[in-house]
Please model this.
Amino acid sequence: MITTPADTSYHVVAGQSIPAILPEAQDACGSVTISFVDVCTAQGLGGYTATRIFTITDDCGNSTTADQVITLEDMTAPVFDFTPADQTLDCSDEYVLEMATATDACSGVTVTHADSESFPCDGSRVIERTFTAIDGCGNVSTHLQTISFLDTT
Model:
């Protein structure tokens, strides 16, 4: 007789494994051993699914399998590893784009940037560059860099 744990869901936390709740199993002729393997599949934005396949083996080598579906939800935004500092430059200076980098505990990260430019009355120019990091589950982090060009000549 086998009683498999109910299907469940967990919030994904970096560095933690999925808790193992083993099925209850009995054999009429002796004891049983239980092992399992997790098979993960993408679920689209928001997480992924792990099918935990339990293998129950008795003392005579007879075995059977049972499954548990575990939904893993990634609600944690990526973390920036590097962000360029704010800068103040002379109007004649060239600015070289420094790209931000980010990582995520559960998936890859795409980092993009968008600029918003303004020209205050004093003849200066200001670029507000917003870096956006998006992980494979759609979680987002942003960082704002301000680049000011002043007329010092």
Notes: The mean pLDDT is 86. The longest strand covers residues 47-58. The two ends are 86 Å apart (CA to CA). The CA atoms of residues 119 and 125 lie 5 Å apart.
